[in-house]
């Protein structure tokens, strides 16, 4: 990186590094994908899309209704199609549902057309956040915390395939947005010493 690039705002460096690729946020429900994604898109002057909202608009149903009427497999098929369509429309910031990244075809599409960011949060942080909203179909169980723990066990190894990992913790959302931007710039434009390794 030359001196002019070092003085360039992080937003400009990130936009240049992304090119036509999208930023795709992955992680469990409650990790902050939508909230962080909206603010990140605003900072970068990119369009923000929430895959869950797009699925609901395409289906004309809420996600809980899709789950109850058609079941999770049908929901996942629709989710895959919607994410593929959104990625073709990039560059944008895309918040995905918690299970989207588990599909191999979706991970491949994200690798081709985007940079994935895992917003990783501790169990207590996730539970505090999801308890504020009762519309999480996968948590409609006798023991939502145990269900979340089981989801973490299954999903964390897959989320770990993301290009970048950022801890989503109980700080101001703008702090997490900064962490995401700094991590993305390091990933897209590593210092020469790291790039040579």
From TrEMBL:
Alphabetic keyword roster: Amino-acid biosynthesis, Aromatic amino acid biosynthesis, ATP-binding, Cytoplasm, Kinase, Magnesium, Metal-binding, Nucleotide-binding, Transferase
Main location: cytoplasm
E.C. designation(s): 2.7.1.71
Residues that hold Mg(2+) according to the record: 34
Transferase is among the record's keywords: yes
Cofactor(s) recorded in Swiss-Prot or TrEMBL: Mg(2+)
A single GO molecular function term of this UniProt record: kinase activity
Residues where substrate binds: 52, 76, 98, 155
Domain of life where this protein originates: Bacteria
Cofactor note: Binds 1 Mg(2+) ion per subunit.
Positions with a binding annotation for ATP: 30-35, 136
CDD domains named in the record: SK
Catalytic activity line of the entry: shikimate + ATP = 3-phosphoshikimate + ADP + H(+)
A Pfam family this chain is assigned to: SKI
Record pathway: Metabolic intermediate biosynthesis; chorismate biosynthesis; chorismate from D-erythrose 4-phosphate and phosphoenolpyruvate: step 5/7
Protein localization: Cytoplasm
Recorded family membership: Belongs to the shikimate kinase family.
Subunit (UniProt): Monomer.
Role description: Catalyzes the specific phosphorylation of the 3-hydroxyl group of shikimic acid using ATP as a cosubstrate.
Protein name per Swiss-Prot or TrEMBL: Shikimate kinase
Source species of the chain: Methylobacterium persicinum
């Amino acid at each position: 990186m030359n001196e002019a690039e070092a003085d360039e705002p992080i937003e400009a460096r990130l936009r240049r590094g992304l090119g036509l690729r999208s930023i795709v946020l992955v992680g469990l429900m409650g990790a902050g994908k939508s909230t962080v994604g909206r603010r990140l898109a605003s900072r970068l002057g990119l369009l923000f899309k929430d895959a869950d909202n797009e699925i609901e608009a395409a289906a004309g149903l809420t996600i809980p209704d899709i789950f109850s009427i058609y079941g999770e497999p049908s929901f996942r098929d629709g989710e895959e199609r919607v994410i593929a369509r959104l990625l073709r429309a990039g560059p944008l910031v895309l918040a995905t549902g918690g299970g989207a990244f588990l599909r191999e075809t979706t991970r491949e599409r994200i690798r081709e057309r985007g940079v994935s960011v895992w917003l990783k949060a501790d169990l207590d942080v996730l539970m505090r956040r999801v308890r504020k909203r009762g519309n999480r179909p996968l948590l409609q169980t006798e023991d939502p915390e145990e269900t979340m723990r089981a989801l973490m066990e299954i999903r964390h190894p897959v989320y770990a395939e993301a290009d970048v990992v950022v801890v989503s913790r109980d700080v101001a959302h703008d702090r997490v947005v900064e962490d995401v931007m700094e991590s993305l710039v390091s990933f897209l434009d590593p210092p020469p010493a790291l790039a040579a390794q």
